[in-house]
Write a structure and sequence with these properties.
This protein is of the alpha+beta class. The chain has a single domain, classed as OB fold (Dihydrolipoamide Acetyltransferase, E2P) (Beta Barrel), CATH 2.40.50. It is built from two helices and five strands.
Length: 102
Amino acid sequence: MRVQAAVVLLVLLLAGSCAGEERRVTGNVTGIIGDLSGITSFEIRPPGEAPITFEPDDNLDVFGDGTTPLNHLFEHVQTGQPVRVTYRVEGDVNVAVVVEDA
């Protein structure tokens, strides 16, 4: 019984350690839900891949430079300039933690 409990604990620990792993992707902004006062989600398309939808982390209000507001994404839609998104997966949601000009 102890061995089974130890195996279950090990599996849970390994699964938990992978859950918060940060990932990074670069692509063009193809859609935004929100307005200049707040963005609830946005989508980017990496070259040659399917679009990826992100929800901003609760603490993500500005780009990685610390001063450019997140609504700068609207400018990226107009100009076609790519962005780099650092994110983590929480369940089935991609949570953006950093957005930068690419």
